[in-house]
Amino acid sequence: MAITDHATALVQAGVPVIRLAAGEPDFDTPAAIAEAGISAIRQGYTRYTPNAGTLELRKAICHKLREENGLSYTPDQILVSNGAKQSCMQAVLAVCSPGDEVLVPAPYWVSYPEMARLADATPVILPTDISDNFLLRPESLAAKLNEKSRVLILCSPSNPTGSVYPKELLEEIADIVRKHPRLLVLCDEMYEHIIYPPAKHTSFASLPGMWERTFTVNGFSKAFAMTGWRLGYLACPNQFLAACAKIQSQITSGACSISQKAGLAALNLGFAGGEAVATMVKAFQERRDFLVKSFRELPGVKISEPQGAFYLFVDFSSYYGSEVEGFGIVKDSESLCRFLLDKAQVALVPGDAFGDDKCVRISYAASLSTLQAAVEKIKEAMVLLE
Ligand code: PLP
């Protein structure tokens, strides 16, 4: 937030800041989806929907989960919410009691530890290493499990690292989960469609014995460029779904009726979002390739090539400790981001916010030419730290 405020102040002062901090696609919502929303308004489809979401949308979600993820759910096991963030929060709130532990591999999406705290649970951070592509080692998980362990949160493809969990690793994790009857798994699959070959997405709930204890969370914001429509969903066994639905009915009720019609159109675009999504993913992949190549040219920088999502999580820690005249010492990810904002006019997010202070997150939800300009400016500024 501090960096965002600083960037906003600079923009207001007329400085042309390149913003690579956003967690949202730079594309417009595909036309067929937007039209479905417009037509919903024109047809007066503007009233409350059932708390859990419209039956037609929940049926379409079941179809998607069956065809694309090999998961079998019925509409009464689907809860449509105002974004996947709400879905995650409700799952944690529904099953955690005070003192329970929520296991969060780091780097993590910023909201997970706070969600645990909001539920009076304790976040237990499981560090990972860039040399393991930021993937959780099964033995690190096993070492932290006890009778208080309640929820393990997995995010694949990951925000902020872009890492994708291979099926074999998920199977090893499932073997450990199986030994802890009280442990549930929240699998955040938000970036499922934004994945680069040869990486493949595996839904944790599709592994033997895992359906019964997994919350599968997904949504429309990222793959369909629908961040502002606020639409996400959760799929899980009935007893958990009932608890989540009860929470939702008291805090927000059902998601926006117009967005649900748009969401239905999104699912009707075809397998994995069809051409419209494939076009965006192709652009993201080109940008990823460009950024990975560019940052590999910078001495002392470590990168794990993202396999999905639209973020690059770069380890700049070899530059920490450098003093720059008129700025001071760049000592951590926050000061590095302030430095890059001041000297390169590029806004990035400090890795500290994601639980890894060695790194900085670069969002490539921006055009290739914008990224080229940003890289040039970052490279020029980094020379001051050598
Ligand atoms: N999960 C992850 C990993 C995210 O990065 C985000 C958004 O940044 C969300 C969930 C929330 O998505 P939504 O817009 O559907 O609330």
Automatic annotation (TrEMBL):
Residues 16-378 form the Aminotransferase class I/classII large domain. Keywords: Aminotransferase, Pyridoxal phosphate, Transferase. Coiled coil: none annotated. Its cofactor is pyridoxal 5'-phosphate. SUPFAM superfamilies: PLP-dependent transferases. One of its GO terms (biological process) is aromatic amino acid family biosynthetic process, prephenate pathway. This is Bifunctional aspartate aminotransferase and glutamate/aspartate-prephenate aminotransferase. The keyword Transferase applies. Pathway: Amino-acid biosynthesis; L-phenylalanine biosynthesis; L-arogenate from prephenate (L-Glu route): step 1/1; Amino-acid biosynthesis; L-phenylalanine biosynthesis; L-arogenate from prephenate (L-Asp route): step 1/1. GO terms for molecular function: aspartate-prephenate aminotransferase activity; glutamate-prephenate aminotransferase activity; L-aspartate:2-oxoglutarate aminotransferase activity; pyridoxal phosphate binding. CDD domains: AAT_like. Belongs to the class-I pyridoxal-phosphate-dependent aminotransferase family.
